[in-house]
């Protein structure tokens, strides 16, 4: 989760600087910068996922050297699952907190023709993204371990596609 938070911090800084250096009156440019920020965020998340893989690989080697039987007590698959789940949970927490912050305002959701199922839909979408991050983590670690670069590209491309689809709404 820490690595995801650091990637979000860096993406936020890049987006913040780019917005302040651009023309704030140009709505089309600002929308483009929002899409740019989402893409940078995804790329940084995947870069930090790779850095986390490298760190866990080193830790796994260290655990194997100090164990009695010469094998690590934790498998790479378990580490991949936990890594993906932690990325997903912290992503979901941020998503749900933003939705809950929106709910503090006056009025009731759905009163002006909006869907009354906004919160339940948001909860299901958040759950889906947590599962996606878990799957992406497992596939990413396996691809790094077996040097399947097309799988890495698939993870990054599907992550970018998902973020792009979320941006459409």
TrEMBL record:
Pfam families tied to this protein: Aph-1 (PF06105)
Record keywords: Membrane, Notch signaling pathway, Signal, Transmembrane, Transmembrane helix
Subcellular compartments: Membrane
GO biological-process terms attached to the record: Notch signaling pathway; protein processing
Lineage: superkingdom: Eukaryota
GO CC, alphabetical: gamma-secretase complex
Function in brief: Potential subunit of the gamma-secretase complex, an endoprotease complex that catalyzes the intramembrane cleavage of integral proteins such as Notch receptors.
Family indicated by similarity: Belongs to the APH-1 family.
Name the UniProt record assigns to this protein: Gamma-secretase subunit APH-1
Gene: Aph1a
């Amino acid at each position: 989760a820490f690595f995801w938070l650091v990637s979000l911090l860096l993406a936020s800084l890049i987006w913040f600087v780019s917005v302040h250096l651009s023309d704030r009156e140009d709505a089309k440019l600002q929308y483009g910068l929002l899409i740019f920020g989402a893409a940078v965020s995804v790329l940084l998340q995947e870069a930090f996922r790779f850095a986390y893989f490298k760190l866990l690989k080193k830790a796994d080697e260290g655990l194997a050297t100090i164990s009695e039987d010469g094998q690590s007590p934790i498998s790479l698959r378990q580490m991949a699952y936990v890594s993906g789940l932690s990325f997903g949970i912290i992503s979901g927490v941020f998503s749900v907190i933003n939705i809950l912050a929106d709910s503090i305002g006056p009025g009731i959701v759905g009163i002006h023709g909006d869907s009354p199922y906004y919160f339940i839909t948001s909860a299901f979408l958040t759950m889906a993204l947590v599962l996606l991050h878990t799957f992406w983590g497992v596939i990413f670690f396996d691809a790094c371990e077996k040097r399947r670069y097309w799988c890495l590209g698939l993870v990054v491309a599907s992550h970018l596609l998902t973020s792009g689809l979320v941006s459409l709404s």
